[in-house]
Amino acid sequence: MPEGHTLFRLARQQHAAFAGREVHVTSPQGRFAAEAELVDGRVLDEVTSWGKHLFAVFGPDVVHVHLGLYGKYTSGTGLPPEPRGALRMRWEGPGEDGEGVWTDLRGATACELLTDGEMGLILDRLGPDPLRRSDPAKAFARISRSRVTIGALLMDQAVLAGVGNVYRAEILFRHRISPFRPGKAVTEAEWTAMWADLVTLMKAGVRSGRIITTRPEDRDRKRGAASRTDASYVYRRTGLPCRICGTPVRTEVMVGRNLFWCPTCQAV
Ligand SMILES: [Zn+2]
């Protein structure tokens, strides 16, 4: 599932390509047709993200998208391709130079039209987002009261918005915290350090479009950009030796997703 940095990038790209101009909004598949008609031809004010949610603001109406596991945007310039398959929503705009720009959405969990009030209700339900100026103390207030494991809490979007399976596994490893530790046993100093680290890692993710959490000295290849297999400490490294201590990395399902951790480095 795309994590917060992907949505932040999409918001920025869509804003740059479409905002301030009229957008031709359609739903070739038909599932979003009635809503598309309501905003079709209107000027797009802005596109923003919060956590894994994308909001495109057309005056008082907001197109809300959550990609879920299978949602995907494709985009390009010039004339869009002939619509194929389950094309839920298509945007077409003049682009900066008038040559045309388009983007297509398929497979999203949510693609709906909301009022700005309804958008506010979604934002109220979401925890702080490390990519936005938001307050990490709000997340800690919930973590520090909870008996739920920190591995589960980090995936709870009401606690923290934007972190998914990869950042969850990696941030816990980088701070040597067991995913099975109850939230209430995480100290404020540990949380403050984790939040600061998430801000740095996720901003790097926005820049590169990839999640890279390893320090160069911990990679198999120490020089150059991190290769695919060198990008993480524990994520998708089941059975491979921990980069720090050599213990085989373990995996187990937690909150419906595979959790990865080093039982030695993250013993408590
Ligand atoms: Zn280890």
Summary keywords:
single chain; 268 residues; alpha+beta; N-terminal domain of MutM-like DNA repair proteins; Helicase, Ruva Protein, domain 3; 4-stranded antiparallel beta sheet; 28% helix; globular; binds zinc ion
Care to describe what's here?
The chain has helices at residues 4-18, 33-39, 116-125, 136-143, 150-153, 165-174, 188-208; strands spanning 24-26, 46-50, 53-58, 61-66, 72-77, 87-93, 101-106, 110-115, 250-254, 257-261. The protein is an alpha+beta fold and 268 residues long. The chain folds into two domains: 4-124, N-terminal domain of MutM-like DNA repair proteins, CATH 3.20.190.10; 136-261, Helicase, Ruva Protein, domain 3 (Orthogonal Bundle), CATH 1.10.8. A four-stranded antiparallel sheet has the order 1-6-7-5. A four-stranded antiparallel sheet has the order 2-3-4-8, with helices on both faces. The longest helix has 21 residues, at 188-208. The chain starts with a helix and ends in a 7-residue tail after the last strand. 39% of the residues are buried. The model has no long low-confidence stretch (mean pLDDT 97). It binds zinc ion. Residues 242, 244-245, 247, 262, 264-265 line the site of zinc ion.
